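We close this part of the discussion by returning to an individual protein. Part of our work consisted of pairing the sequence of a single chain with a tokenised description of its backbone. The amino acid sequence and the backbone structure tokens for this protein are reproduced below.
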Amino acid sequence: MSGGVNYQRAYERERLARTEAECLLADKTRDLYDNVIVLEKTLEELKVSQKQLIQAAKMASIGQLAAGVAHEINNPVGFSMSNVQTLSEYLSHIFQLDQWMMTQAELPDGLKHQYEQQRQALAIDELKDDTQALIDETLGGLDRVRNIVSSLKQVTHAGGNTREQCDINCCVDDSLKVVWNEIKYKMEVTKHLLPELPSVQADGQSIQQILINMFINAAHACEDKGTLTVSTQTQVYKGVQGILIKVKDDGSGMSDEVKEKIFDPFYTTKKVGEGTGLGLSVTHNLVEKHGGHISVNSKLGVGTCFGIFLPITQA
């Protein structure tokens, strides 16, 4: 009898020990699983931070190059535009003299005849038209170069120094008015703007430039008729209260490879001569100067959505 009791007690102790071990194992497994989840999240955050650091280093190095190039280009562009404008004035005076010569009735017939022959041989009338067209095209080209230089400066310019309370919804409306002539035939615009949105301490002109770049980029992504959807809402990002602006299009979308490069200066998927590749890099720079964050979600053949987070107050 005592042997059976001892066996029963030994069995009960073993069962309790096994149960306790199983509970302990379950607790440790649960802790291990929780740690794995935390590690996976930390790893993902580290990957994001690594990409941001690489992007920041890339922007810094390319920005220095861009600043130097902009400075070197700006001077010759400036005096070239001045010289072409002066040349246009000189030619205008010459053609005025020609017009005066042709209207003088007191000139001897022989001299007037010789002048008309020389004038015809030099094709002065055609020269007038061609010269003005050439000057206009040259000034237009130089003005485009000047705009590119201006964009280059904005890649590295501190920008956004003048801060005031901005109504983001008003910035959206004003920016749409600016680009309306460019997008009205290509895009149907839908707005979902949160009423009574808190104001943001920001440089209003910079915010409008960010939005204008976004809207034009969306229009270019839609070959035919497309839809541009703009929304605003409040959001907390990394513990900071702010405003989230979403700019969405149903255009061609982007591959993962393209998404990795879209904020790089001079990177563009457009044909040569159709774009400088500075719009999104300038946008990225301006958002970061405001202490904000820009993200992109895109799928080929479906469309693209940019998210622009701006803190309500600057640190």
